[in-house]
């Protein structure tokens, strides 16, 4: 698995967890079999409010070894079955199987961390809480020290945790989230470049253009025009 530029080798049986907005890809043997389960980011955010421990599960791409006694394959099979049925209570059954999978993954994650890297667990939890705050406030141009203050850590502690878990400083994670949203606005809405800049708390559209160009390699106007041409083709 290649995720955010890092390569992770894996062997069956295992779980590969990939957070939302992670650039990733897989290479495996032709006879490999497995499941792909996609969970809505909005649902995970709501779930984390109910069960904060889930925040650390998707803090960064990771590999978890699995064993037959975990029953994960049976849970996945039941989940797949419920997704194509329309029997009474199917929605509750789907969530029940999904929660069972996530709890099993969470416990395996905590077990692996206790055995190997207890410090990384704390860092992953901090990064997960930071990402949740960014997801809430990336449109508001919140200063980085304010994030650290709300997380009750120093700027240096937040930076160390982000570098350890993601390989990127916290300011980069914020800017990448803003850039992602800028792309979505230009691709999927009728917003002008000025309107998109204003929506993302850029007081100067020229600065927004420089920001976007740095990440995309082209201006937001050119990006929007290219997307329009592709859609026509």
Please describe what this structure looks like.
With about 230 residues, the protein is mostly helical. It folds into three domains: about 1-115, no CATH class; about 120-170; about 175-230, Arc Repressor Mutant, subunit A, CATH 1.10.10. The protein contains ten helices and five strands; from the N terminus they run ββββαβααααααααα. It has helices at about 40-50, 70-85, 90-115, 120-135, 145-150, 155-165, 170-190, 195-200, 205-215, 220-230; strands at about 1-5, 5, 15, 25, 60-65. The strands form two sheets. Strands 2-1-4 form a three-stranded antiparallel β-sheet, with no helix packed on it. Strand 1 (about 1-5) and strand 2 (about 5) form a beta hairpin. The longest helix has 27 residues, at about 90-115.
Quick overview:
This protein is mainly α. It is 61% helix and 6% strand.
Biggest sheet record:
3 strands, antiparallel
The count of strands amounts to 5
Flag low-confidence runs: none
Give the strand order of the largest sheet, numbering strands 1, 2, ... along the chain.
2-1-4
- Report the portion of residues in β strands: 5-15%
Amino-to-carboxy terminus distance: 33 Å
H and E string: EEEEHEHHHHHHHHH
Structural domain count: 3
